[in-house]
Specification:
Blueprint: H1 3-26, H2 31-50, H3 61-71, E1 79-80, E2 83-84, H4 88-110, H5 114-136, H6 142-154, H7 171-180, H8 183-195, H9 197-209, E3 221-224, E4 232-234, E5 236-238, E6 244-246, H10 256-265, E7 270-275, H11 280-292, H12 296-300
Antiparallel strand pairs: 1-2, 3-7, 4-7, 5-6
Helix pairs in contact: 1-2, 1-11, 2-3, 2-6, 3-4, 3-5, 5-6, 6-8, 8-11
């Protein structure tokens, strides 16, 4: 395994194990951990690009990615609950990032560096995509989104880690997969596949309790409204029309105290709840699997 790949593997596994410990104990992961992980990734990427004799235009993607990365943690957003805000410094930063990306793209594609450059262009693109995943609910927690963004910087392209990964794809599939399916997305998908053990565990638990109602039995369990466990989402609520509804994928932002009282007022004594599963645990496993075993999706899908 090449030294840079070994460093990325060690840093990634170590940081995610620390994050998993925080997530299990408190369901929160401190931002300094992701800032350190992303900064380490930027430094390694800079070293890697400057160490190559050609294609130095790729270095412009590093400050572009850095602006997008640090903007996640610092400064006020352009769009919040009160509407759109024109923040000059933030807009200037985003403008600089866009200029660097466009300028380096022109140089790279003019000089015939389309494949190598495109693989690195996925870095700033995935920073924006993971933020979008969080906004639409595909990534449930803010720490999960920050983790994926930091991992994108840590391992921006598929690592040269021979003899790993042990599971390889057909060469006809591997090349386009590497271009269209960035490594951090492989980590995310591998983690999601490993996460599938959670619904099976819920199903067994609810079957043993004699509470096997589908599909909610795959997503959580029933609890007393007078003793709703900590770190759970309510899967039942009374909507604005007074109807009792089941929510399989609860969204953040609702007041649980109000929701609980509405259920009590409607005569309910128990409700289905969904634990806030610490995603850092399968994410740490997914990173190790992606690095050393490979893309589980490519193995599962028919060839």
């Amino acid at each position: 395994m090449e030294p840079l790949a070994a460093a990325r593997a060690a840093i990634g596994v170590g940081a995610l194990l620390v994050a998993a410990r925080f997530d299990v104990r408190t369901r929160r992961v401190p931002d300094p951990l992701w800032l350190a992980l992303g900064t380490a990734g930027l430094l390694l990427l800079t070293y890697e690009i400057l160490g190559s004799a050609t294609d130095l235009e790729r270095i412009a993607l590093v400050p572009a990615a850095a602006v997008l990365f640090y903007a996640v943690f610092f400064g006020e957003t352009l769009l919040d609950e009160s509407g759109l805000h024109l923040r000059p410094l933030r807009l200037a930063g985003f403008g600089l990032a866009a200029a660097l990306i466009v300028g380096s793209s022109v140089v790279a594609f003019r000089d015939g560096d389309s494949t190598g450059y495109a693989s690195l262009l996925a870095v700033p693109a995935m920073i924006l995509i993971y933020q979008g995943f969080y906004q639409v609910g595909l990534i449930h927690g803010g720490a999960d989104a920050k983790a994926m963004i930091a991992l994108t910087l840590l391992v921006p392209t598929y690592p040269s880690a021979a003899p790993f990964p042990l599971l390889t794809l057909d060469p006809r599939i591997d090349a386009p997969m590497r271009l269209s399916f960035p490594f951090s997305l492989v980590v995310f998908v591998d983690a999601a596949i490993l996460y599938l053990v959670v619904p099976l565990a819920f199903l067994v638990l609810n079957a043993l309790r004699g509470d096997l109602r589908l599909p909610q039995a795959l997503f959580g369990y029933r609890a007393s409204l007078d003793a709703v466990p900590k770190n759970t989402w309510l899967m039942e609520r009374i909507d604005e029309t007074g109807q009792h509804v089941l929510v399989l994928l609860p969204r953040r932002g609702r007041d649980p105290t109000v929701e609980l009282q509405r259920l009590r007022d409607a005569g309910h004594r128990r409700a289905w709840v969904q634990p806030k599963i610490p995603f850092m645990v399968p994410l740490a496993a997914g990173f190790a699997v992606a690095f050393f075993l490979g893309n589980l999706l490519g193995v599962i899908l028919p060839r």
